[in-house]
DNA sequence: ACACAATGTCTGAAATACCGGACAAACGAG
DNA sequence: CTCGTTTGTCCGGTATTTCAGACATTGTGT
């Protein structure tokens, strides 16, 4: 039986279960990979078929093609598949193709080893926030949110910075209404969020305390690209009881390093 | 099983003069990604079309689909595309989905920081050798071969270990004849190579001096999977003038760490 | 033991995704 | 400026691929 797969499949509910719609193989592939990323664990072909709303026979065909190309690989003995070695190589090529990204990774490593805290590189993916890379703090208190997991933007400090270029109307159109509801049920007032975005934009950093998680203090600083736009952020994820002097020290460090990585000032 | 992928990859490799054959979108996608990986730099759509032997109109269609999915992204002024953010996330998911791989990465980091040498994780991809991950030694002498670049197996120390389970006949069938020719024109006698493979298998490590490169001394140790098979190796890439005592020390360290990562003994 | 569900493979047939080719626009060289 | 090349887009026809369903096996639960 496929452990917790059913919940996710039904919760996903994105693809229409509607029959009779013929789709391109390429689109099936894209949906399949996204589904695997969302599920974050090997899946069986039958479950994949349900999750992406594709016929079983088609799904088998596609999965076999991707297995041959090593974009997927079998894991375990019982028909489970997950991302394959080729994906690792493609992803590595992406993250090293430009010197800028490599410098960012080095900074991430240095920040982590110097401070011992959890450091993340964050960005947007569609209208969600994602962690692009991270270095987890050692020790028992691992709060690490996984790389690639999509999170509602209003839950995050980085998200407030990444939307700094948008007008209030654009923000309204961009953020799905449900994304203002936190995991514990509290709801962020959109007006407050818009104010946060503006404040973060003005002061050049953003902090949140006990927002998405009761036990964490997050701080983010912007990395600006050649046009001055903020496409990525550096971010500390601290235990909420971190003393204020240390928080201030870490914030200064974070802002300095992020500024050093930026390709434009201001 | 679909026989497609290998043929397609080969076609992509040596350029494809073949015209008039209609192919599936999925296969085009696979060829496209392999072509990008081989080229190791952003490409224009027209060049991609030539490289994978696809009609321009089809290539545009596919590229646009992949751009929408962020599997590719535009880079540079305009017209150039390379791997996109989604690939990074898929690849990250691949390399972290199992605890074993994570332990390997940690070992890689530790070996690199403890010794200051270049460390690599190596494996096979089809009938070629590839670096799966690496930590480059600091300093001016960067000999780093890039992750994902395919290299003839006989050029490498790791390759001798990775083929340890094969009979001489299997080796003969597996290695393309041209792969015995080194970059500087020298040719390795197949008989010598087969003997090397056997020796490496027996002693549980492999070393090469000034083989693929006049200035490097390579040493590799096997990581065994649950069935005792060798699917990956740890590897040091040293300057060739590294003193023998230090080489011996590093070899012992490498073998010890590789053994600790193996899921079976012997 | 049974019934029931899921897996992996095949098949025929219809919908359509891919192809070849044409087109305007942009570029570069001489 | 003019010519030749490349880029990005569009279109209609047809060779292909996706789809639905059936099948033999294997797995699961009571």
Topology:
2 copies of one chain form a homodimer.
Chain A: H1 5-12, H2 25-39, E1 43-44, H3 45-52, H4 56-68, E2 72-75, E3 80-83, H5 85-96, H6 99-115, E4 118-125, E5 128-135, E6 151-152, H7 157-162, H8 168-174, H9 190-203, E7 206-209, E8 216-224, E9 230-239, H10 244-261
Antiparallel strand pairs in A: 1-3, 2-3, 4-5, 4-9, 5-6, 7-8, 8-9
Helix pairs in contact in A: 1-3, 2-3, 3-4, 6-10
The structure holds a DNA duplex (30 and 30 nucleotides).
Outline:
The first copy, chain A, has ten helices and nine strands. With 266 residues, chain A is of the alpha+beta class.
Describe the structure.
- The structure is a homodimer of 266-residue chains.
- The first copy, chain A, has 266 residues and is an alpha+beta fold.
- The first copy, chain A, folds into two domains: 5-84, Orthogonal Bundle (Arc Repressor Mutant, subunit A); 98-261, Beta-Lactamase.
- The first copy, chain A, has ten helices and nine strands.
- A six-stranded antiparallel beta sheet of chain A has the order 6-5-4-9-8-7. A three-stranded antiparallel beta sheet of chain A has the order 1-3-2.
- In chain A, strand 8 (216-224) and strand 9 form a beta hairpin.
- In chain A, helix 1 (5-12) runs parallel beside helix 3 and helix 2 (25-39) crosses helix 3.
- The radius of gyration of chain A is 20 Å and the shape is globular.
- The N and C termini of chain A lie far apart (55 Å).
- At the A-B interface, helix 2, helix 4, helix 5 and strand 5 of A face helix 1, helix 2, helix 4, helix 5 and strand 5 of B.
């Amino acid at each position: 039986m496929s452990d917790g797969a059913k919940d996710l499949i039904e919760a996903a509910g994105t693809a229409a279960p509607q029959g009779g719609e013929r789709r391109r193989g390429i689109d099936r592939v894209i949906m399949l990979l996204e589904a695997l990323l969302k599920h974050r664990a090997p899946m069986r072909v039958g479950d994949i078929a349900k999750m992406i709303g594709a016929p079983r026979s088609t799904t088998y065909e596609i999965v076999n093609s991707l297995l041959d190309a090593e974009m997927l690989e079998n894991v375990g003995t019982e028909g489970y598949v997950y991302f394959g070695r080729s994906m690792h190589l493609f992803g590595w090529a992406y993250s090293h193709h430009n010197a800028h990204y490599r410098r960012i990774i080095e900074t991430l490593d240095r920040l982590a080893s110097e401070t011992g805290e959890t450091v993340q590189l964050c960005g947007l993916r569609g209208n969600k926030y994602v962690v692009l890379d991270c270095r987890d703090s050692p020790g028992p208190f691992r709060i690490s949110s996984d790389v690639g997991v999509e999170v509602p933007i209003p839950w995050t400090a980085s998200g407030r910075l990444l939307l700094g270029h948008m007008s209030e109307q654009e923000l309204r159109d961009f953020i799905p209404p449900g994304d203002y509801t936190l995991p514990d049920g509290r709801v962020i007032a959109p007006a407050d969020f818009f104010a946060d975005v503006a404040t973060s934009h003005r002061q050049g950093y953003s902090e949140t305390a006990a927002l998405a998680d009761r036990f964490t203090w997050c701080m983010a600083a912007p990395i600006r690209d050649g046009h001055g736009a903020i496409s990525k952020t550096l971010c500390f994820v601290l235990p909420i009881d971190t003393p204020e002097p240390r928080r201030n020290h870490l914030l200064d460090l974070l802002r300095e390093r992020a500024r050093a990585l930026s390709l434009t000032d201001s």
